[in-house]
């Protein structure tokens, strides 16, 4: 018997036992609902040769809202109204496990070869980005005796053995410390480090460590925590630590420029922010905020404006001015405008009246198309070369082109259809 998707998912999530799996299907798709815990669930679905995961945390008071969000997600991803969603009673446990582990699925030879070809192309560009010599690094998290750092020339992630948590220039075995003079240039780079909402990763910045994957990303958020329950012990990358559990409202941007709100729990080990750009790490189990930017103070001090941040993030998928405008309008309408001072809202709107004033990355605007300096070029020009204005730098042009190629190939293979802005 087919029920409307909201009724079906509500019943299953409210009544399913923890760790239970329920197979679901439409006329064209198969998916699995997994009750991860009392207040969280995941839906897995096939996407080409990969398995995509939609994970949600909820409270009894927010369950219905979360279910509507999931239904909207599925409708967009599957291009279906889900009117025929039902329990797949004919799908056995073996088939369910086969879906959850794509390596165990038998692939047709033609599909297998196409997947290999795509992987080889993407891997080639990604491998070339993984440089670790004659580069500047910006450390973000201590991992054992080393540091997870962003390589500023390539905006890729890596693990580096450095003596302390400060920026270094890597020259072979030498580590030469340097001082950051223009913090905006660093923030504009980090603003393009995003996490795919469904695949929960980013191949450009992900690192394999201790048998698992570590993902770093930046994201705009609102602190929605209603009750402070104090310090909580948590496990991250196999190590125990303490932090504050927080409910964060994130903003998801699709390739079409549409924005949706997304609520998720995270552990914060950084000073609380009401509205901020957070620096987050995800180890596949625990989401941790290790730092970030107070966007209200940053905007008022002209360190990094909200306009600059949103533009840099949206340029990752499109150089269209309308994509940026939709993204900015979306985040403002979904809560930002009510949580920041009115004079700041006015300033943000005034900046947008002149596209050339949105960001120093903007070189020119023709109709709906933005010609821009890559954040790497901006960083290198003002921070390394000491220029007052950005320029197209020959010294980093190869890195810029490599990253754009890698990103284009990832997008072509299904990555970043939707990410946290």
What can you see in these coordinates?
This protein has 421 residues and is an alpha+beta fold. It has helices spanning 5-15, 63-78, 93-100, 109-129, 183-190, 295-300, 306-314, 321-339, 342-352, 375-384, 394-412, and strands spanning 21-25, 30-37, 40-47, 50-57, 86-87, 135-143, 146-151, 156-160, 168-171, 174-177, 207-209, 212-223, 231-236, 239-254, 259-268, 275-282, 287-294, 362-366, 369-372, 418-420. The chain has 2 domains: 5-103, no CATH class; 187-420, no CATH class. It has 11 helices and 20 strands. The chain has a 5-stranded antiparallel β-sheet with strand order 4-3-2-1-5, sandwiched between helices. The protein has a 5-stranded antiparallel β-sheet with strand order 8-7-6-9-10, with no helix packed on it. Strands 12-14-15-17-16 form a 5-stranded mixed β-barrel. Helix 1 crosses helix 2. The longest helix has 21 residues, at 109-129. The radius of gyration is 22 Å and the shape is globular. Residues 101-113 have a biased composition (Basic and acidic residues). Residues 101-124 are annotated as: Disordered.
